[in-house]
Amino acid sequence: MKKSKPYTTGSLESNLAIQVSEPALAYDSFFDNKMLVIHSIREGFTYDAFQQVKQVTPFSDSDWADYLNLSLKTLQRHKKEEDFRFKPIHTEKIIELAEVTQMGNRVFEDTQLFYQWLQLPSMALGNMKPAELLKDSYGKEMVIAELNRIQYGIFA
Predict the structure, then answer these.
(1) Cα–Cα distance between 74 and 86 in angstroms, integer?
(2) Segment 36-90, tens digit of pLDDT
(3) Domain-located, residue 1
(4) Which one, of 37, 25, 27, 36, lies nearest residue 57 by Cα?
(5) Based on the structure, what is the number of domains in the chain?
């Protein structure tokens, strides 16, 4: 079985190191290459790759634990485990949240403004906070759709 080598991406947003057996791509290009995303999900992110994604998102450790449906203590314990890899379901959620953050930063042009928007109830989202909807994939799609409407000036 072929061993995978570190996959390093680089851009203004991040220097994300993901374990896959592909050549290096820019961070933005990672999301454009759906097969690479699928391969990464199936292989699972290392804790280091998660840390690097975490650095470009506005979410705290508590937020991440909540989104990944893990206890904060478990998430912190994984940091200390050598050769730890997140399960595919957790890796997929990490990637989803990275995509939302990437789009939110593009729309708001400021991570802090984006994070503030996530914490405010939205009439277009049933008076729920966008951050609350990020707990599942369907809610994430609703948040992405709302970000698209904001980006193009279509208000509900």
Answers:
(1) 12
(2) 899 999 999 999 989 989 988 999 999 999 999 999 999 999 999 999 999 999 9
(3) no
(4) 27
(5) 1
